[in-house]
Specification:
The protein is an all-alpha fold and 182 residues long. 82% of the residues lie in helices and 0% in strands. It has seven helices and no strands. It is globular, with a radius of gyration of 17 Å. The termini are far apart.
Length: 182
């Protein structure tokens, strides 16, 4: 196991203390959950940089990295939903998009079509992570309404989630047309 894969796996393992801290809600636990979530989120950047710079890119890492991202985001959203901090319909839409795009990418690979993450998907992830950081804090911090800020960011993330999902399907359709016309 190389360092990039180790960071990706650590992102998965950090999910458990984040959820555990939220199960015993307090200002301190919410803040600690946010710190651990932020640390896990940062590993997404560093594992990619390390893999590319040190030539540690592997099929296993390429499979595990987006899975770790989805597990971190979805598990945190589900926990926040169970706490009444996030509407269930938002969580359902985000989970449906993630499953649909993952399935589409699997079908694409089976058809010899490579569909890397696009700019919209990266923006979606960035807004999801920022929203979740604010929603994890929940309580006002430095006189800022963390929860309200988190919800605004989450609605932006939701719009990007739906749009980027639609864009993946449009790109796949274009790629299939090009492949059939070639």
């Amino acid at each position: 196991m190389n360092l990039a894969v180790f960071l990706t796996i650590s992102r998965i393992f950090l999910i458990f203390p984040v959820i555990g801290l939220l199960m015993w809600e307090s200002r301190l636990n919410c803040f600690l959950a946010m710190i651990l979530f932020s640390l896990a989120s940062i590993t997404d950047y560093f594992d990619g940089v390390l893999a590319r710079r040190l030539h540690l890119v592997s099929r296993f890492g390429a499979f595990l990295d987006p899975l770790a991202d989805k597990l971190l985001v979805v598990s945190t959203l589900v926990q926040l939903c169970s706490m009444g901090r996030v509407p269930s319909w938002i969580v359902i839409l985000i989970i449906c998009r993630e499953l649909a795009v993952t399935g589409l990418r699997t079908v694409a690979v089976d058809n010899g079509i490579f569909m890397p993450a696009d700019a919209y998907g990266k923006w979606k992830t960035g807004f999801q992570l920022a929203a979740l950081i604010a929603l994890l804090i929940h309580y006002p911090l430095l006189l800022l309404p963390s929860h309200a800020i988190g919800m605004i960011l989450l609605y932006i993330a939701l719009a990007l989630t739906v749009f980027s999902g639609w864009n993946y399907f449009a790109e796949y359709r274009r790629a299939v047309r090009e492949k059939n016309n070639a």
